[in-house]
Amino acid sequence: MAVYVVASVKFTDEARYRCYQSRFEQVFAGCGGTLLSADDQPLRLEGSDSPDRIVLMQFDGAEQASAFLLSDEYQEISRDRLAGSVTIAHAVHALDPPLR
Does residue 35 lie within any of the structural domains? Predict the structure, then answer.
């Protein structure tokens, strides 16, 4: 079952975060996931806090998502993400079948 990783990012040191971002595509390539969105201007529809960026990734399953997120390559670039932002991330399972 498909799993989506949704990350809400608040920059604390944007230059460090952008360093992470500049290396992300190369590390993500070949992991089997799909980057669906990386929006630096998310539209707040409800609530009082807005992140600086929202990222949405899709994976075939939780194992594939975990394999990417725990890989040595991703952990290495994540040092800049951790130094440059506060990130709240969730893995959510897709509905099967999706509602339309």
Answer: yes
